[in-house]
Design goal:
The structure holds two protein chains of two kinds. Chain A is an alpha/beta fold. Chain A is built from eight helices and eight strands; from the N terminus they run βαβαβαβαββααβαβα. In chain B, β1, α2 (42-57) and β2 form a beta-alpha-beta unit. In chain B, α1 packs across α2.
Chain lengths: 223, 121
């Protein structure tokens, strides 16, 4: 006997993600879900961002890693609340799920937060499939990873509104064509926005923050 | 490996649906529809689902996964076409602002259970 079920596998996660989104919307917090491979420069991008922001607007960070609080320690010097999530106790999950974010939000004073950066577990595959309550997914890809990655890991680029190409200060040492990266990303997601940055030299960080501010002001048009 | 957590979600859904039918119902198979444009390793999902089901149900139902094509619809020229590979643009007019009609499914479609045995009284 065949019994219809017709349920989405991710329905339970998405329900919690929607709860998170409503909670963040209540405080008009613009939330970025930052995804990218291990070592692509996600934490460094946040370091450079917090360095510039210095509390204006007020940011908070949720750091996702399988183990260690090394990233949270790196981000601890910027007068910004940082909550570290380790997925290891739950089996070393390769991505953040909405319930983990829900718990982390309890540890942040949302009334005193304008921007929330969620740094996902380093991985270009799994995080793309999971909503956590974000306004936008942003994918970071470093110049050392190669031009073909958008074609090899298409979902991350399809789901992200913005591609941040990182470590562009290294381009002179590499045989890499940044236009090719952009073209490949647009094969997967023609409307994706693209920024080129170096968190090390600071190049492009202003444009990245302008993007963030633009999205924040859309979320709170009266401010 | 997010297939482990997806396998647990799948098992939770199956158990809930089965319990709604009857406490003693035996689930023989689970039918899923999975789109081509998803980050899912089907073999890993089957492996974990089998393992978790054995542990938590005492038996592992067959997991039957039907693949769903990636189909896009073009708001420009109205074409609705199946895509085999990137680019994700309208294959007729090249428009990039296509809407994904199918291919992102991760759906539990149905479960196959034993016919209820008629009981006296």
């Amino acid at each position: 006997m065949d019994i219809p079920v017709l349920k989405r596998l991710l329905a339970a996660n998405d329900a919690v993600a929607d709860q998170n989104a409503r909670r963040l919307a209540q405080w008009k917090i613009f939330t970025v879900n930052l995804i990218g491979a291990p070592g692509c420069g996600k934490t460094k991008l946040l370091e450079a961002s917090l360095e510039r922001l210095r509390g204006k607007p007020r940011a908070a960070v949720i750091e996702g890693d399988i183990r260690t609080s090394l990233d949270a320690e790196r981000l601890s010097g910027y007068e910004t609340p940082v909550v570290q999530i380790n997925t290891e106790p739950f089996g070393g999950d390769c991505h953040l799920e909405a319930t983990a974010i829900s718990g982390a939000l309890d540890m942040i004073d949302l009334a005193k937060t304008d921007l929330l950066f969620i740094e996902n577990v380093g991985n270009l595959v799994c995080p793309a499939e999971f909503k956590v309550g974000e306004d936008a997914k942003v994918v970071a890809l470093s110049v050392t990873e190669g031009e073909d990655k958008p074609l090899k890991y298409p979902l991350a680029f399809r789901e992200s509104e913005l591609l941040v190409i990182t470590k562009i200060d290294l381009v002179e040492h590499l045989e890499i064509d940044l236009d090719r990266i952009e073209a490949n990303a647009r094969q997967i997601h023609p409307a994706i926005e693209v920024l080129r940055v170096s968190a090390k030299t600071g190049e492009g960080i202003d444009r990245w923050l302008s993007w963030v501010f633009g999205r924040l002001s859309k979320k709170r048009p009266e401010a | 490996m997010h297939e482990l957590s997806l396998a647990q979600s799948l098992l939770d859904i199956v158990c809930r649906e089965a319990a709604r039918l009857s406490a003693a119902v035996r689930v023989n198979a689970v039918n899923m529809k999975v789109g081509r444009f998803t980050a899912l390793d089907r073999d890993a999902l089957s492996f974990w689902f089998g393992l978790l089901a054995k542990e938590q149900l005492g038996t592992a139902p067959d997991l039957v996964i039907e693949e769903v094509d990636l189909v896009v619809k073009c708001p420009g020229c109205g074409a609705q076409e199946r895509l085999e590979d990137p680019p994700i643009v309208c294959p007729r007019c090249g428009n990039g602002a296509v809407e994904i009609v199918s291919g992102r499914e991760l759906d539990v479609w149905s479960i196959e259970v034993d016919e209820p045995t008629p009981t006296a009284g």
